[in-house]
Amino acid sequence: MVWSAETVEGLAPDGASVTAARKLARPGPWSEVGFDERAVWGLCKGSGSRPYQAQVDLSGPAFKCSCPSRKFPCKHALALLLLWVGGDAAAGPEPPWVAEWLASREERVERAASRPAPGEPPRDPEAAARRALEREARVAAGVEDLQRWLRDAVRGGLGAGRLRAWDEWDAFAARLVDAQAPGAASRLRSLGGVAAGRPDGWPERLLSGLGLLHLLCEAFARADGPVREDVRALLGWNVGREEVLAGPRVSDRWVVLARVVIEQERLRVQRTWLWGLSTGRPALLLDFAPPGAPLEPRPAPGMAFEAALAFHPSATPLRALLDSPGEVSGAPGTFGSGGAGEALRSVASAVALNPWLEEWPVVLASAVIDGREGGAWTAAAEDGALPLGGSSASRWRLLAMSGGRPVSLFGLWDGAALTPLAAGDGVRTVAL
């Protein structure tokens, strides 16, 4: 990886962490700052009597700090890297606390390497087959009950009093959880929130959602081919990591376009968006961790690497697994090859194959950004313009980066607007 201040800031979980790290990235609060070919380390004075021990494994990168922050990486690890790239760290031997941490990481890698090879059969195949058949039967019974419940709900009318009661939706969602169909339960609870809260446009949203749930039930009994895997995933089946890695791979030079961390009540979700420069296809790396726990380190936005990705089975393969990235380097400042027409055609093709998609990643190879406070925002290509959604801050960053000139643009199209996630100005690729 080619390290720079931009690379370091691209690792930050949010803008506040970048601001705090910049304030700390000065020699004053630091002592014993050093580095070697493997790591960077240092002690940072905090509010307590003992300084915080911050350390970064450059091969990951991976981070560790003794501060109580729940952010990862924390401001101390980011500031330490900024000091290092700025030349304020001295080369030297690793102190014992750093060497011990690096050794423990190496042990974990060795243990992972000693696990059974991908595709190895279960120790008790008969018991595994029996459990699989039992789940199939439970899910089938739950889906049949859901179809009956959906028919009754629509027959009674969307404005019926029973549908305004959250308990009605929650109770049946619990039935689906018992039937081992948590994906359907989650969709039902989401629709229950629409029915009970009645936001603007609730009848259309509710009827559309109920229709897609009914389609999911029908597809469970009839679908075959790749879409069958999408149906099972939506109901709650998970494909094992080993099974995915045992499948075919897609080799390319992948650009890291954006990384989004979503903080949920019981889970942290990291979404890393990639774009294949040769294949011209998107890929999504998903990582999960409990609140306060570290997420899997990924190359920073604006970087690129050679790798063979294994995609989860799907009619519209998007989620992928990265076994081990190759050498990381700076990404080109442009990506994609089409305009607005090609972007919309790619969305239409994806939805035709998987009607439950709520958004789809698209790129515009060259687009001019236009927008103003309180007005409409657009990204105009040679063959048409797409409306821009997303946060006001991301749109203004995009406009400032482009300076009125054409940029490569990556985002998520939801059927109404494009949420911008990354842009390239011909020199660099930047997450928004």
TrEMBL record:
Region (Disordered): 109-131
Database matches in Pfam families: SWIM (PF04434)
Annotated keywords: Metal-binding, Zinc, Zinc-finger
Regions of compositional bias (Basic and acidic residues) in chain numbering: 121-131
Record keyword Zinc-finger present: yes
Lineage top rank: taxon: Bacteria
Gene Ontology molecular function: any one: zinc ion binding
InterPro entries attached to this UniProt entry: Znf_SWIM
Record has Iron as a keyword: no
Domain SWIM-type: from-to ranges: 52-85
Name of this protein: SWIM zinc finger domain-containing protein
